[in-house]
Amino acid sequence: MALPGVLLLLLFQYLPILGNVIAFQDYEPYLGISGSPWVGFRNFAVIFNGDPAFLHALGNTLAVLLLQVVFVFPAPIALALALNGLVSEKLKRFVQSVLYLPHFLSWVIVVSISQSMLGGSGLLNNWLRSGGHEAVNIIGNASIFKELLTSQVIWKDTGWATILFLAALSQIDASLYEAASVDGASRWSQLWHVTLPGLRAIIILLFILRLGDALTVGFEQIILQQGPVGNQVSDVLDTYVYNNGVLNGNWGRQPPSAW
Amino acid sequence: MSTHRPHLVLGMPRPGIALRSVKGVVLTLCCLVVLVPFLGVLATSIAPPKQVAAAGGFVLFPKGIDLSSYRAIFAGGVVTRSIVVSVLVTVVGTLVSVTCTALLAYVLARPKVFGYRPLMTTVLVAILFGPGIIPSYLVVKQLGLLDSYWALILPTAVSAFNVIVVRSFFMGIPPELIEAATIDGAGEFQVFRRIVIPLSKASLSVIGLFYAVGYWNAFFTALLYINDNAKWPLQLILRTYVVDQSALTGSALGSVTEAIPPQQSIQMAILVVSIVPILIVYPFLQRHFAKGVLTGAVKG
Which of B273, B261, B255 is nearest to B66 (CA)? Predict the structure, then answer.
């Protein structure tokens, strides 16, 4: 009974992991894995001797990661705090329904929407022009590409990410707040000394989980948008693998991080 | 989440009026940032062509309703075909996924079964390690699945994580029921079909929705495995005609008898068509996914 499921897992999850041995081969698609010559670590040498495209991809990955840690990670915490104090339950549920929605859209849809809104002939620029202002160049502007990526991630996933923080907030013992206010703590010191410590466990947990796939920074999102800004600014490790490996046919020469 | 609510109100002290209005403004802004783009997309797709042309592309408040862009994309051209592909892949894929997931989960739900340990390990390890892009591509290529619709289904058909979720649900079914059925002479498949499936319709349909949204939204598998653009699903059409702004000509749209609506209207109509299925299942998704995220993460 388990056969079809296990077979699919073996074929599409395990077999490709074994396929990573081509990192040590001069892989030729028509020779296959058994026929391609073994070259030891030569493919790695090409990378670490400083293929400029690879270095750009590595640098961009780290830059995007930094932006994500600084801006994307704390956003849901702030939003959860804002939602948490809402007195009206109905209002809160409405806001949640609105803010969770973008999480379920694909990146193609999100990128399409952001182009329609912020692109050269998008809604924002139409509005600016009709008001006699100068149009702003947001989409396809290489100098703010990483910031654009970051804002899109915030737009898509911040709402959804509040779920865990809201749940953790609801677990904080109410008597702690009472005690704090009896001791004369202001709202800010309550936030600092009661609320945030109450969230500490979940924050650390999520942070570690995020670092676990630190080098995964939005493959689909970037593949979709790197055309106008060029690969030097936009390539991250995953897209480098795709552009260099699948499109250019350098099968074996992939960074080990991309496995 | 409803069980937590009393705490929320009790837990935090009531904010003062100043703080409350700051929060109100912030949350209103957040909602607008999410809602206005949707409004713009919908409005541009239904606005009269003249208004769209006059506005220079996008409008927020349509002066009337004109469905010509929807007629254009459903006229039988590339967009129509991609919608059919996406619907078929989603339906067939979800059936395949739910069937394989449920069968595998059922075996794993009974630790006494022969081969339980290696099976369980296989599934758990698959959660931890994902395959890389290139080796996956090579496997699909070796299997001769490039440019086949099955390439959009099989590689992502079984999510090990979902197997574990369904398994833990199956384990909650009282073993006495299964025993009783076995004593009455039911075989393995009969027990599965007559006892286990009817008892877990709700949770299986949630997992089904999970998979369905995944198939509907799947972009990368199609990008990687489908080169023949006659087989493109909707997400690749979106990439080509909305993100990359390739012009949709009359011949690509099929037999359009009327004047072709502005490109922006057509693009936004395609976008609406790709969002609507998600909106339809969204209420279920929100309720069940939120619950699922919480059961996994927070105790008590």
Answer: B261
